[in-house]
Write a structure and sequence with these properties.
The structure is a single chain. By secondary structure, this protein is of the alpha/beta class. It has helices at 4-28, 51-62, 74-88, 103-116, 145-166, 204-223, 243-247, 253-265, 269-281, 302-309, 313-327, and strands at residues 42-46, 66-71, 93-97, 122-125, 172-176, 230-235, 292-294, 297-299. It has one domain (34-327): NAD(P)-binding Rossmann-like Domain (Rossmann fold). It contains 11 helices and 8 strands. Helix 4 runs parallel beside helix 5. The longest helix is centred in the first third of the chain and has 25 residues, at 4-28. The relative contact order is 0.15. The structure holds NADP nicotinamide-adenine-dinucleotide phosphate. NADP nicotinamide-adenine-dinucleotide phosphate (NAP) is lined by residues 46-47, 49-53, 72-73, 76, 98-101, 126-129, 149-150, 176, 178, 235-236, 238-239, 241-243. One of its GO terms (molecular function) is oxidoreductase activity. It comes from Folsomia candida (Springtail). Belongs to the short-chain dehydrogenases/reductases (SDR) family.
Length: 334
């Protein structure tokens, strides 16, 4: 049941925590750039043409990785690829079309990657949308658009690439989530979100999809426990990218407030990407597989997770896995 008071309290906690962390990050300056080597690693980045994904792709190319940029819009992708190539001098960057909201596109993308590469070392599930729509938007398969793009598409891509990731000496899967998951209004019985309440509920589809990223990471790490593959979810903090453009498309007061705040306290794409790179490359974090990181630090969000899920996190995570397979009509379990 949607409880507006609980959501408001959660929102205030989240808001003040985020502002505090953002400001301390700004005051302390950018983190010491981590120079973990990525030479020889095959890295797949979703949503690599803009924002955080582009910064991650750029940094991976600088560090010598074979970078596979997956992009929804091929023209935007080519432009970003050219930019990264000329800035880094790398000749190891390729582009694959991927629309996460379209199951057949995800399958095509995974097939192309698998046919060209015998292993994938790092998969960065980064692409995402945040829209503000008065009514629930559905994909052609009938799934809620945020959930389909931000979670289901990545869930499917990960499953289809898993054999290739297992071929890596030290595979990693990084799911870019958000600590905004604490504002989720989540029901495992209503993943199509047809019964979402109003109020903060308009923000809920995005937060629900980010909660799904965290739960997916936890369940994936459990299922991969006897493999070399590690998985992390990461909150990049508030970052000045295009993400808010979809949510605050109308140029009203809200639009200018959020744009202004992002301008003041939002991190640059490079700083936001640093936390993602940490989870992708840092040595010594392997035994925290399944956990969430923010600004390169392990976060303990267990209490918030249990409170948002309304039941033990492990059991919701397992149910979400099964329901995701059902929604995608997948028979084979990993
Ligand atoms: N920015 C923040 O403050 C913030 C905070 C917490 C978490 N995050 C997370 O960080 C991730 C990256 O966001 P960002 O801030 O870099 O946003 P962004 O600048 O808007 O970039 C989003 C990327 O995702 C791609 N994308 C959107 N829909 C897609 C689809 N259906 N299929 C494939 N690609 C699609 C976009 O492609 P197009 O260019 O074609 O639209 C773009 O490349 C997201 O998962 C977001 O939830 C961001």
């Amino acid at each position: 049941m949607f409880d507006l008071r609980v959501s408001v309290v959660r929102f205030l906690i989240f808001f003040f925590q985020s502002v505090f962390h953002q400001i301390s990050r700004k005051i302390c300056g950018p983190p010491k750039r981590r120079e973990d080597d990525a030479r020889g690693k095959v890295v797949v980045v979703t949503g690599a043409n803009a924002g955080l994904g582009k910064c991650v792709a750029m940094e991976m190319a600088k560090r010598g990785a074979v970078v596979i940029m997956t992009c929804r819009d091929v023209n935007k992708g080519i432009q970003a690829q050219n930019e990264i190539q000329s800035s880094t001098g790398s000749d190891k960057i390729t582009l694959v079309e991927l629309n996460l909201a379209d199951i057949s596109s995800v399958k095509r993308c995974a097939n192309q990657i698998s046919s060209r590469h015998s292993k994938v070392d790092i998969l960065i599930n980064n692409a995402g949308i945040a829209l503000n729509s008065p009514s629930t938007q559905l994909t052609k398969e009938g799934n809620e658009l945020h959930f389909a793009t931000n979670h289901l598409g990545h869930f499917l891509l990960t499953k289809l690439l898993l054999d290739r990731i297992k071929n890596s000496e030290a595979g990693r899967i990084v799911n870019v989530s958000s600590s905004g998951f604490i504002m989720a209004n989540f029901s495992i019985k209503d993943l199509r979100m047809s019964k979402l309440g109003l109020g903060l509920g308009t923000f809920a589809p995005y937060c629900n999809s980010k909660l799904a990223n965290v739960l997916f990471t936890k369940e994936l790490s459990k299922r991969l426990a006897d493999t070399r593959v590690k998985t992390f979810s990461v909150c990049p903090g508030l970052v000045n990218t295009n993400l808010a453009n979809g949510y605050y498309a109308n140029e009203n007061l809200q639009h200018y407030l959020i744009k202004g705040s992002l301008g003041c306290i939002g991190l640059s794409g490079e700083d936001g990407a640093d936390g993602i790179l940490h989870c992708a490359l840092a040595k010594g974090i392997e035994d925290t597989s399944g956990e969430m990181y923010r600004f390169g630090r392990l976060m303990n969000f267990d209490q918030e997770l249990t409170s948002v899920c309304g039941m033990p996190t492990d059991s919701v995570a397992e149910k979400l896995w099964q329901k995701s397979e059902k929604l995608l009509d997948l028979k084979q379990l990993h």
